[in-house]
Design goal:
Number of strands: 4
Number of domains: 1
Helix content: 40-55%
Order of helices and strands: HHEEEE
Strand order of the largest sheet: 1-4
Structural class: alpha+beta
Radius of gyration: 23 Å
Length: about 90
């Protein structure tokens, strides 16, 4: 759950949060009623989310030669899944 928040929700919300914080602490033009640039904020959030998902996918570790054995039942007992190491040459 925390990985999903860090790789999807935080990058999507970060530009909007930073924009509103910048507006809050900006001294000049406090009375200005210009609408927020929603298209740019959504685009920047989507770009950050894509970059973070790509980084998480490329940095997931593991070897391509290793294998995965899914969880299974043996004699009524759940045997957890495991990753088998690559064969030694």
């Amino acid at each position: 759950m925390i990985r999903q928040v860090l790789t999807v929700l935080l990058p999507l919300a970060a530009p909007t949060i930073l924009y509103f914080l910048w507006l809050r602490f900006r001294r000049k033009d406090r009375d200005s009623k210009t609408p927020p640039p929603w298209l740019w904020l959504i685009g920047a959030g989507a770009a950050l989310a894509i970059v973070s998902l790509l980084a998480a996918g490329l940095h997931s570790g593991g070897s391509r030669d290793s294998g995965y054995t899914p969880p299974r039942y043996e004699n009524g007992i759940l045997v957890p899944g495991k990753i088998t190491p690559p064969p030694v040459e």
